Amino acid sequence: DWVMRDHIAEAVEAIRQQVGDEEVILGLSGGVDSSVAAALIHRAIGDQLTCVFVDHGLLRLNEGDMVMDMFAGKLHAKVVRVDASDLFLGKLAGVSDPEQKRKIIGGLFVDVFKAEAAKIKQTHQRHVAWLAQGTIYPDVIESGGAKSKKAVTIKSHHNVGGLPEQLGLKLLEPLRDLFKDEVRELGVALGLPPEMVYRHPFPGPGLGVRILGEVKKDYADLLRRADDIFIQELRNFRDEHTGKTWYDLTSQAFTVFLPVKSVGVMGDGRTYDYVVALRAVQTSDFMTADWAELPYALLKKVSSRIINEVRGINRVTYDVSSKPPATIEWE
Ligand code: XMP
């Protein structure tokens, strides 16, 4: 619509004014905010933008390829993909405490990004002067000293405060005035696929906090496949009254890997394999949440597909805990 087109034209002009002929670096995570920021800045300054996509090996199935396909393939943006999965998995070996895992993942993420940004700074002829971030208005409020809704920080969510100073870069935040809904509308208007723009939130530490205890590559591979089946079926099944998919009727849904084995039977044999838990919640603010009353037919389909298609998992459970007292994530 024309209001959004006007808004894009204005934002594009503002970015051009601010940046001039200097270069911009942006950390692409695959999440909505950084994706929309990247698409907007790319619209404004094209190849003056370099995106850095750090793949920590704890992303969902095919996510890295999808991000590259979208930004490098379709938008023709400059994207550097850093495959750091061995580094992350190496440092996570033997670590089972959730907060410790978060610290390691968040810290490494910043290190890898900084190293890559420094490389880009050196190799560009033009002055690399800007670090772009997909900060949106609610982030501004939350970090602005104003009393945040979270009186107690239960979990250290990874953010990158202080990064621009450390890199000697100025901060470019073109989404600072926008609410989430506006960011999504902007993303669609910029040509990003609605499935990407209307995705459930995904935590920075990714599957690292959805594998309980120690993170191992084998666990991550099993979890990725199980989770992909759950998400596919949430997108397939529609509620008969509203016609909406169960993906759209839930606020967040994912699979959790439990590193315990249970007994099962398959054909003539006994199996002794891992367990996963499905989690789906409905919430307006993520501070409280109800577990979603998914249709039994959907749960049945997901369960039988996971057990039949993912060798190594022989039991599927559904999490019926609300927040509080349970949290949405299991770690
Ligand atoms: P909880 O588990 O605290 O989750 O009920 C509330 C929301 O926060 C997300 N979450 C995180 N996001 N880094 C993130 O970027 C984190 O470490 C993290 N921990 C939880 C969670 O996915 C949910 O949307």
Automatic annotation (TrEMBL):
Q: What is its EC number?
A: 6.3.5.2
Q: Which GO terms describe its cellular component?
A: cytosol
Reaction(s) this enzyme catalyzes, per UniProt: XMP + L-glutamine + ATP + H2O = GMP + L-glutamate + AMP + diphosphate + 2 H(+)
**Limits of the GMPS ATP-PPase domain:** 2-199
KW 4Fe-4S (keyword) present = no
Query: What keywords does the record list, in alphabetical order?
Result: ATP-binding, Glutamine amidotransferase, GMP biosynthesis, Ligase, Nucleotide-binding, Purine biosynthesis
Q: Write out the residues that bind ATP.
A: S29, G30, G31, V32, D33, S34, S35
Q: Which domain of life is it from?
A: Bacteria
Which pathway does UniProt place it in? Answer: Purine metabolism; GMP biosynthesis; GMP from XMP (L-Gln route): step 1/1
Q: Does the keyword Transmembrane apply?
A: no
Q: Name one GO molecular function term.
A: ATP binding
Function of the protein = Catalyzes the synthesis of GMP from XMP.
Q: How does it assemble?
A: Homodimer.
What's the protein here called?
Answer: GMP synthase [glutamine-hydrolyzing]
Source species taxonomy: Bacteria, Pseudomonadati, Pseudomonadota, Betaproteobacteria, Burkholderiales
Corresponding gene? guaA
Q: Which residues of the full protein are shown?
A: 207 to 537 of 537
